[in-house]
Amino acid sequence: MTEKDKFVALKSTRTMKFKTDKQDKYTILALEEENLNSLIAPNLKSEFVFLRNEGVRNLILDLSQVDYVDSSGLSAILTANRIWKGYGTFILTGINSPSVEKLIKISRLETILTIIPTVEEATDYVFMNEIEEELQSEGGDED
What we know:
The protein contains five helices and seven strands; from the N terminus they run H-E-E-E-H-E-E-H-E-H-E-H. By secondary structure, it is of the alpha/beta class. It has a single domain, classed as Transcription Regulator spoIIAA, CATH 3.30.750. The strands form two sheets. A five-stranded mixed sheet has the order 1-2-4-6-7. The protein has a two-stranded parallel sheet with strand order 3-5. The radius of gyration is 17 Å and the shape is globular.
């Protein structure tokens, strides 16, 4: 194994720093990284699959500590959106970095994703969505 191979192997095994807050109706995944890039994205996608397999119905991804997102990071975000589509809700929140905000606008992802400014507002959104779904299902039962 050459020095370059050792470096590549080391880079690919980098762990992702994050916290999860699991509640009855939602889970918050707060990414504790400055960059959401090709080094982090595969681990993030794996965590999304793990959370979905655990039965997390509503996921809030908090990017408040992220300053940079590349195409791999966008792909991870879109993967989560696809995983939760038709199952629950995927919410992106905490976009504080002007560069991340600009990338999302340039990519026109605000038309695809549910983006809410703060974690508190995102949790409120989840509860409102749950109430709306319950009311719709009750209304459907009466027909």
